[in-house]
Amino acid sequence: MSGLDHRRGTASVSLLDAAGRPLADREVVVEQVRHAFSFGCIGFDLIAHANGEADESALADDWLELFTLAVLPFYWGGFEPERGHPDTARLQRAARWFRERGVRVKGHPLVWHTVKAAWLDALPIDEVERLVRARVRREVGDFAGLIDEWDAINEVVIMPDFVNEPDGVPNAISRLAREVGRVDMVRLAVEEARSVVPGVRLLLNDFDLSADYERLIEQVLDAGVRLDAIGVQTHMHQGFRGAQLLELADRFGRFGLPVHFTEASLVSGDLMPASIVDLNDFQPSVWQSTPEGEARQADELEQHFRMLVGHPAVESVTYWGITDRGAWLGAPIGLVRADGSRKPSFDRLRALFREEWWHAPTTLRTDAAGRVMVAGFAGDYAITAGDARAEFALPLGPSRPTVELPGA
To answer: Which tens digit of pLDDT belongs to each residue from 189-216?
Structure first.
């Protein structure tokens, strides 16, 4: 655990029976249930499963074996391709499915200029703004209690300058960003979301990790817009970033907000050519996973998580897909192959998350005051005495929780 004290807690747990008496000199079993640190992954591949439309039981088991945070897609163009007919019910069922299994859920994103609703483009700017505001309020309200964290707005650095008009109709979200400016676009998303759920957690998220993004963050915070975390995208189809990850955590951690590495991917095949500027421009018809690439991916993913979990500014790391089947840009980035078999990267991450960084079931004996000492990674724990079982939170640092075990 060397170097990870900032992820650990120690607790003197007092155990009581139903009458409030200490459970003195009793044998109990303590085990970890989940991490406080968010080990995330997109949950896109399990939406059909959660809705009973497909049987992805094996993939679901693999997903739940590793991750504690699911990201669900709210790209407006896919979520509401026909005006007035959003895919709310299916996404609610998917969010509920994850929540019932102890997984937190994040929505991605509320506002973005890409994969936006095409029907929005032809509308006048005042109507666009009204609908964007309403869209933010609707989603945050409809998913209150299911989704407690959102990428409020995505890729604002390029938003006003984005030009991609294959149908000749100017992009409505980019037009609005040019009209009101970047800072007020962020303010719009954040304030509309909090007008519905004041305690919702909101991120600014971007792939542009240049000084432009840092300046935008400074301007947003100076303008009094409250963010809960800074989102940093690190797709690595052209090679592992290595020590640059720690530099990014330092640079974006200086704002005093948690840093979330929101979108990470590493290929297990040939790397994308370094000459490609936009990752979307490289989508070969076949992009194979290879034994050499899979060994490299496993090594690099382990380094990725060790470095970021080891950095005190980082609160969350999300991987962009558990399976190669239907993976983003057709890239072999999954932890399992298209046929469902596990790659070495899956086993490597499981060894980290569920073994090295995990409190396995441990038998302890309470003292005369009914106390046991528990130390481990911060998160949720269960304690069992006979047939009685209860959960408690182990926060960072020292704590003294009291746990009732009726029937013990």
So the answer is: 999 999 999 999 999 999 999 999 999 9
Low-confidence ranges of the chain (pLDDT < 70): 1-2, 166-168
Contacts of 213 (CB under 8 A, 6+ apart): 157, 206
Number of domains in the chain: 2
Contacts of 401 (CB under 8 A, 6+ apart): 11, 13, 14, 392, 393, 394
Q: Where are the alpha helices (DSSP H) in 197-290?
A: 211-222, 244-253
Please state, in angstroms and rounded to a whole number, the distance separating the CA atoms of residues 169 and 85: 22
Alpha helices in 262-329 (DSSP H): 291-309
The secondary structure element, H or E, covering residue 42 is: strand 38-42
How far is residue 355 from each of residues 31, 103, 250, measured CA to CA in Å?
A: 12, 19, 28
Whole-number Å distance between alpha carbons of 263 and 63: 16
Would residue 350 count as lying in a domain? yes
Name the residue with tokens 């432009």. Answer: 212
Which one, of 328, 350, 390, lies nearest residue 45 by Cα? 328
The verdict on 109 and 152 lying in the same domain is: yes
Pair 111, 166: CB distance under 8 Å: no
